[in-house]
Fold this protein.
Amino acid sequence: MKNNTALKIAPEDNGIEFFLKKLERGGASPHTIDSYRFAVSKYLKDYGEVNRRNLAVWRNDLIDRYAPRTVCVRITAMNTYLKYLKKDALKLQTIKIQQKPFLDNVISMADYEFLKKKLKKDGNLQDYFLIWFLGATGARVAEFAKLKAEHVQAGHVDIYGKGTKMRRIYIPENLRKAALLWLAESGKESGYLFTGNAPGSHDAALTSEGIRFRLNRIGKRYGIDKTVMHPHSFRHMFGKAFFEQTKDLALLADLMGHESIDTTRIYTRRTATEQRELVDKTVTW
């Protein structure tokens, strides 16, 4: 009888690229595709055969070594791969993520404004606008990397997800006007806003990793805590500031691209720093 719960796959013949192409056709984001490629490829390299025992050992190892969110992403990637292989019987149980009662590692509005002021004064307009666009759009890093001059001219960019789902990222008018002047002075009418520095990469979009590297470099130069100098920190700052100004959770969920408004509720909470400051100010007894 044919065994339907085990499958031996050589790393060089694992069908991953076909699997990833199917994800892409289904509307998966570049970030999702990259994370799924890494998770599945590493499993096959470390364990080889896809069977119940190896998957169980792999799952336990993930739980021992990584944060819950990382574990969930990798298990989801593997479960999606198993479905592609028609091995649903081997699918793994995910773990429950306990959401923190506060926002962590979020850049403050004061530090954000400080960076903008210093970068503009120093004439570093590329990084000045990089910081400004991150903080004023709420875009995910993979979406941010694909921003073009044409999007600035239009005042928005439409992001298409799974199926026909669409989300619009707006470029605020004050940022749009300033960016249009910058582009005009640079002689740039089309193409990616933020490009690489390596030879031959001047017209290519700055990668997600390149954006993280630049933020790290900017943080070191101006003495900003490295724990908040990452793309998602600015996305969180946008979400928190927008909710504080509007109290419109439903609109914010749409702007952030959240499938569930429960995910957006994190922006109703204070940051860990704000909680500490409020406790220190209030508890004097």
